[in-house]
Known about the structure:
The complex is a heterodimer.
Chain A: H1 6-9, H2 18-32, H3 42-56, H4 59-66, H5 83-88, H6 99-113, E1 127-133, H7 135-140, E2 142-153, E3 159-170, E4 179-182, E5 198-204, E6 210-213, E7 216-223, H8 225-230, E8 232-236, E9 243-247, E10 256-259, E11 274-280, H9 288-300, H10 307-311
Parallel strand pairs in A: 1-5, 7-11
Antiparallel strand pairs in A: 2-3, 4-5, 6-7, 8-9, 10-11
Helix pairs in contact in A: 2-3
Chain B: E1 3-7, E2 9-10, E3 16-18, H1 19-26, H2 30-39, E4 53-55, H3 58-72, H4 76-102
Amino acid sequence: xxYKDYYAIMGLDRKATAAEIKKxxxxxxxxxxxDVSKDPDGEEKFKEVAEAYETLQDPEKRAAYDQxxxxxxxxxxxxxxxxxxxxxxxxxxxxxxxLSDLFAAFxxxxxxxxxxxxxxxxxxxxxxxxxxxxxxxxxxGTELELNLSVPEYDENGLPRRVQRAIKVRIPKGATxxxxxxxxxxxxxxxxxxxxxxLYLNIxxxxxxxxxxxxxxxxxxxxxxxxxxxLGATIQVPTLSGGVRLKVPPGTRAGQQLRVxxxxxxxxxxxxxxxxxxxxxxxxxxxxxxxxxxxKALADGSTFNPRGHFERS
Amino acid sequence: xxxxxxxxxxxYEHYEFSLAELADLSGMPxxxxxxxxxxxxxxxxxxxxAQWSFGADRLVTVRLACRxxxxxxxxxHSVALLVMLLDRVHxxxxxxxxxxxxxPRVLR
Lengths: 312, 108
């Protein structure tokens, strides 16, 4: 088992009082809690802090932790002889477990024992996992294989780390930030309690062409000046192949042309739309003939794009 | 190692949960969820209905409220305030994302 220095994680002295432990926890929770922090590593850091606090704020667990001795963080260690018997019960094994599972099992066994010694049913733990998928995968639906390292408890409430592989079918309808619930795929329930659930938080990888807002997609549509003036029919990419889009004459930069139902599928029915945002592109290098044509246009046109400057 | 197969359910407002289902899934007692409805953390689809039902996306809010309550040791009124402020932050973030999506990239 690898040692974790709970005091160092919380920036505390080993002699810290209960009030100091609580104060340090609150400060660190505000800094790293994933629901309120912008720190990209906040979630991992908060997990460490919460694990340390969970043990240090409980006098019984803290005493048991202190008896483990002082080791280097990450160092492999074995608890002193009799520690397992005293705190974990007979048949206790330190193989395949994590320090956090060990102390979680502590409170688990206390709760499960109940006041009159009867075993109380406990629902399994819920797991939350971030899943990154591409826009194409979100559009078509996809399958992901998740490999989770999770604690499992035997009938005595003793933990063991197990590897679980879960193949998840992600149905059509995903978009950025959407949550998927996988019923009963969390931790195993105890004493007849139901199994926990697994929650997937979907994040979409950025796409080179399409930008996503809800179930709508946005695409930049560069037009040549003459296409914008005269109108044109343009082949536009969508997630389900190209479509021909009619650009009306006199189209301006920034205008949005809607291609209905070519966005991401919605979970209940229908789909978002695709919006092509017009940009007027100009050639940076022009040949002699092109230059002459533009010159002729400049000389012959009465168009004044800045008429409103003069009026104001 | 055995591979388990499973199909997911979107937590989307078009699916509905009853109060009992929401309590079961979040691990919160129904009495506490009723308190959150009183505080405005949770809004039933029809507050006048005899049996409340909630959009499935509300489970995300309830799970958030549970985490905040436990991790910051908050009482119901503070949970309500924090959930309301976080909702506003998320709305603003969604608006920024939306504007970012509509903003053309500079042509190269």
